[in-house]
Amino acid sequence: MPPPILYNEMFQGDRTVRPHYAAFADWLKETPPERIAQNRHAADLLFHRVGITFAVYGEASGTERLIPFDLVPHVLPGKDWDHLARGISQRITALNRFLADVYHGQDIVRAGRIPYEQIAGNPQFREEMIGVHVPGGIYAHVAGIDIVRHSDGKYYVLEDNLRTPSGVSYMLENRKMMMRLFPELFARQHIRPVDHYPDLLLETLRELAPQGEEATIVLLTPGHYNSAYFEHAFLAQQMGVELVEGQDLFVQNNTVFMRTTQGPQRVDVIYRRIDDDFLDPQAFRPDSMLGVPGLLSAYRAGRVALANAIGTGVADDKSMYPYVPEMIRFYLGEEPILENVPTYTLRKEDDLKYVLDHLAELVVKEAQGSGGYGMLVGPTASSDERERYRQRILDAPERFIAQPTLSLSLVPTFCGDKLCDRHIDLRPYVLTGSQVRLAPGGLTRVALREGSLVVNSSQGGGVKDTWVVD
């Protein structure tokens, strides 16, 4: 079978430029290569100066890398973005309805749409949250939905990130960088802005507190050894809220306080960037040094609001992903605007058999995995790697899902001083409070190795600015 014809975001099949890339293509043609090279170098220096790095787990302690930034933007026409925004809003609304249901009536289970064991057996399902009412019934206030465009030109949802989605600081810094280095590109066309995202985030967090604008909001970080610490500090600074670690907070009479030089100050809302397991050593992992003892009790008593809610992970587990279209139909009475990638759930006997017979053609992922770790890309794996992975699957099939190897779309990307086509995905960021809000575009991640489909920064990927043009 011939390989699929890959969708190129900038060029049509005959290599003519797509209309929404015309302004950039003209600029590229008329700009001397020396100036482009100088600006690429300037971008690297600026990223270093600002400290935009990420830690890499599994390497020598303290290893940090500069996130590779590419100057060729990922450009979307406004009508494409409007379609994506409608589909993403629909999806996050259904996911929030599912979370409210799963911790209360479990109507979707009683209706036979999702098997009970799919929820009860999920390690991210928190029994402690059953019957707990959260502000506005919203669980996932901040989400990142991973979108890909396939060779058929259609957009698909690859993954829902509802726990502590990262990367939004890169979206904001990428835009700031492009506007600083290439102001003439922004003068030639209308590119929808993203710099209001921190204001939208702050507004979403304020809505969670009974005190409204007078509320004390903090951002809770695991600390500077965390891979996304730059982002935690950046967002706290942009919103004008305190960046705190677990040791900066304490609970008294089911109320959370922050230690300050003026004495204890009550905390109303915590934007937490710590996973459930580490949030409260009295409720979850007793060995956690990152959390706040007693936080769950204060949360259950309604004395503090958390974004995102405890237990949100049950909806973004990869084994729950195949059921999202059914959630949309069940809770909203609508057909999904955006399609899922076809997915095999390996706890099902027929799916397991098919996947084991077709390992060389599929991508297999851990249901609880993230960051591109722990996955098998069948077509590029060696026979030894596939056999080792086969054994892992057989040991615990319920821990895996599998999908066809997608032909991710391409965007020209600088390789040295020339342009090469590289695969990308897109992570738009969604804020949910009294309404669903999206910053136009999102973070485009690019696989810098030729032929690679893995875009994660931890696996050698880079980032691009994302333009929605009208």
Textual characterization of the structure:
- The protein is α+β, with helices and mostly antiparallel strands and 470 residues long.
- The chain contains 14 helices and 23 strands.
- The chain has a domain of 64 residues: Dna Ligase, domain 1, CATH 3.30.1490.270.
- A five-stranded mixed beta sheet has the order 3-23-22-19-18.
- The two termini are 39 Å apart.
- About 1% of the residues have low confidence.
- It comes from Usitatibacter palustris.
- InterPro entries: ATP-dep_Glu-Cys_Ligase-2, CP_ATPgrasp_2, UCP005522.
- It holds the Pfam family CP_ATPgrasp_2.
- This is Circularly permuted ATP-grasp type 2 domain-containing protein.
Look up the CATH topology of the domain at 342-405: Dna Ligase, domain 1
Write the CATH architecture name of the domain at 342-405. Answer: 2-Layer Sandwich
In what range is the share of β-strand residues?
Answer: 15-25%
What is the CA–CA distance across the termini? 39 Å
Principal-axis shape: globular
What does the radius of gyration come to? Answer: 22 Å
Briefly note the structural class of the backbone: alpha+beta
The CATH class designation of the domain at 342-405 is Alpha Beta
The percent range for helix content is: 25-40%
- Count of alpha/pi helices: 14
InterPro entries: ATP-dep_Glu-Cys_Ligase-2, CP_ATPgrasp_2, UCP005522
Protein name: Circularly permuted ATP-grasp type 2 domain-containing protein
Pfam families: CP_ATPgrasp_2
Domain Circularly permuted ATP-grasp type: 73-447
